[in-house]
Amino acid sequence: MTDISCPLPITDYPNVLLAHGGGGRLMHEMLMRRVLPALGTPDAGQTDAALLELGGARLAFTTDAYVVKPLFFPGGDIGRLAVSGTVNDLAMMGATPLALSLSLILEEGLPFETLDRVLASVRATADAAGVKIVTGDTKVVDRGKADGLYINTAGIGAVPAGLTLGPDHVRSGDAVIVSGDLGRHGIAVLAEREGIGFETTIESDVACLHRLVAQLLAAGIEIHCLRDLTRGGLASAMVEIAGASRLGITLEEKAIPVSAPVDAACELLGLDPLHVANEGRMVLFCPEAQAAAALECLHADPLGAGAARIGRVHAESPGRVALQTRIGVSRALDMLSGEQLPRIC
Amino acid sequence: MKYVEEFRDGDAVRAYAEQIRALVTRPWQIMEICGGQTHTIVKYGIDELLPPEVTLVHGPGCPVCVTPIAAIDRALAIAARPEVTFCSFGDMLRVPGSRKNLQMIRAEGGDVRMVYSPLDALAIAEANPQREVVFFAIGFETTAPTAAMAAWQARRRGIRNFSLLVSQVRVPPAIEALMDAPDNRIQGFLAAGHVCTIMGTDEYLPLAARYRIPLVVTGFEPLDLMQGIHRCVKQLEEGRHEVENQYARSVRPEGNPAAKRMLGEVFHVVDREWRGLGVIPSSGLALADAYADLDAERRFPMDALPATDDHGCMSGLVLRGVAKPRECPAFGTRCTPEHPLGATMVSSEGACAAYFSYRGLNQKAPA
Amino acid sequence: MCLAVPGAIRAIDTSDPDNPLGRIDFGGVLREVCLAYVPEARIGDYVIVHAGFAISVLDEEEAAAALADFRAMDEVR
């Protein structure tokens, strides 16, 4: 074997790449090694919202920015996304959403008609979710700087006494359940992108999940952890939770629900459905003994109609996620590295 | 998906594995030269189902992995030009050149766009006459006809603001180079089913005869691979060295005549450098003289870029099947998919990336 | 290399003879694909598609034969 001396690798990228926002490992690394240490809050981000105790009240607090392109996609738009995304982050703590803030960053030249459509969608989604926009901000930036429109929302919600959800509450033996089929949002958005463009009936799964969560709690399900699936897909969420809980997770490929058209789109572009973004799906960890009841409760609601039990938590290979493939061999499941890129090869 | 799902039947895959186990009497090394096949093998754990006597070696089958650093550097230089809209398949965006990759050029302000088809790049040229649109034409014989069509249509429609940066490669000379190498241990090949869909199987007959090796043209789904491996092992056990076609639902002996004609019109055969393997004679395709005006290298002349040794990155040894990814000291430490040293880690089909993603840092998948 | 997937031709457009196009159904996802390299293809045929081009017409008899082989293999166990 020849003598190896490796050159200096491209490790520290001097500039931010799109991949740093992809929901994968590059983004995870940036947060863990640069952002959180700089802020002095190394434990932030383990759950979808922060839990604050104020006097006797327990509040969930979260924020999110929405930069989706195109603004209007099959099944939804940036306005609907901006409300559901934040409502869902609160819901993942078991919180009842109380109020949202809304910051608009408008690009010079954006037609008011577009803004009106987005605002109408924000209003409709918030009303349906039973939450109010109570404060906000507006800025305008030069033409060319905001893809039309960016939105930031922050939200607060009330968390019931005694309910603390999170990866550190996950237990060995827990069942892993997903609330519906994967990949609709990511594929719906990708279908509209230049350079890829295909025709499909797939619509984004964007939806508010807080009532689904409330129903599970009302049914007495002992939920240990909830995570809504966004960028990076199911794989990112599983890897993060396995890491944070220091337990192992094994998933059954055959049990993971993916609709036929999403599957076809992924095959065509060489994408893995487990890495594709969702906006109206969550995973739930609960004791094995309650898995059947949890599924029954989910199936009773249209939003949970496609719920399925997809795996289990165990103590072997802590921090690692394994996928039992359909041919019976097990392989490791990891996060996306950076952006999810369609491939030809 | 029809004609896909049926070829992933777990029970049939395991049945083949047992057949192979029953058949084999001695160790055999079989190479597949197709990133897509590498991907399937590692993703489904096909090699774990095979008896220990059968070793599958992952060859230089991913065009991303074999594109030389100099070609990437040329691409980066062109993409950085303010008047250029640089179009590439998604696969190439993360491949490192000497210092940067296309993603970084985009981050620095370059107009770098991902396309699914070369015709999409041509459409961008037609819609943006004020821009110089360059398409990065990489790939094997499967992809070359798609680039050829883009060039041919550009000529027919008089689209002048379009050019191609070509770094295409051919499989048969690579097989010769691998078999001629003194440390070669490969005894049989699985040939790439989609390359053969275009080129047919005739080119492989002299290789089977000269090197006395079986060559089984194989598809890409788990069952295809199992059947291909089974046929290859059977030939080895029976002392035969023939060209067989497992992927007959797509591959005909004559290949695709229309595609071959277009290749002959737009491209000619040249010597080409492969990353990690050096220059292999007659192993590349470049634009024919009649299409020279569409050559991005001529349109954007560059100073000779300093040759960079590919020292360090072990891609070459991995690509030749001489080493496995985890034998490289940088694997998983300094070299990861987020911070790749070499192309085998960048491409989702590169052997290193496949091992990293699907096997983690362990040799075997977790139980 | 060479990710290519099979899909069924639903429509053919030869209005531009230099660029014959097919509307291909991959099972709920449709895309326009160049058919220049499969002049023999007809509506209803399955084609193998790579980078926006059909590179072969899938031989359904051969596919069926391969699947029959697999089933026979399975039964031998």
Give an overview in words.
- With 345 residues, chain A is of the alpha+beta class.
- Chain A is built from 8 helices and 15 strands.
- Chain A folds into 2 domains: 49-158, 60s Ribosomal Protein L30, Chain: A; 167-332, Phosphoribosyl-aminoimidazole Synthetase, Chain A, domain 2 (Alpha-Beta Complex).
- Chain A has helices spanning 25-39, 78-91, 112-129, 184-190, 210-218, 233-245, 260-269, 291-299, and strands at residues 50-54, 57-66, 72-73, 76-77, 96-107, 132-141, 149-158, 175-178, 199-200, 225-228, 248-252, 282-286, 308-314, 321-324, 330-332.
- Residues 1-10 of chain A have low confidence and may be disordered.
- With 367 residues, chain B is α/β, with parallel strands linked by helices.
- In chain B, the strands form 2 sheets. In chain B, strands 4-3-5-6-11-10 form a 6-stranded mixed beta sheet, sandwiched between helices.
- Chain B is globular and about 65 Å long.
- The relative contact order of chain B is 0.16.
- Residues 360-367 of chain B have low confidence and may be disordered.
- Chain C has a 5-stranded antiparallel beta sheet, with no helix packed on it.
- In chain C, a hairpin with a 2-residue loop joins strand 4 (46-50) and strand 5.
- The mean pLDDT of chain C is 92.
- The chains are: A alpha+beta (345), B alpha/beta (367), C alpha+beta (77).
- The interface between B and C is large, with 56 and 39 residues.
